[in-house]
Amino acid sequence: MATLKAAIPILPADDMPRALEFYTARLGFKERFRDDSQAPRYVGIERDGIMLHLVEVTPAPTARLVASQTMCRFLVDDVDALYAEFSRHAGVIHPNGKLAPKPWGTREFGVLDPAGVCLTFFVVNS
Fold this sequence. Notes:
Layout: E1 10-13, H1 16-26, E2 30-34, E3 42-47, E4 50-56, H2 60-67, E5 71-75, H3 79-87, E6 100-101, E7 106-112, E8 118-124
Parallel strand pairs: 1-4, 5-8
Antiparallel strand pairs: 2-3, 3-4, 6-7, 7-8
């Protein structure tokens, strides 16, 4: 039987340069590829072996609508360290997403990317 090895979320962006700046400068991802060096509309980024793809959706209001309904969760090994890292950048941590224990057995915090995609970073309580 085949085994699944990874999943790569494709996240909507309303402004690719702004999205790339956010993910690389604030969240520590590295650009791995792009579809066009001048004005990319599809870009692959990676951090710690986790791949994300960003796709520019037009028009921008459509991108923001799709983004507002898109979520991605990241299991991390040290949520406190990551929270501290991201907190060094103004406006990265969602005002309603501060690091906190949750009733479903995790400690997590939330980030909204520039288009409005909700990113949650968590550790499972032991």
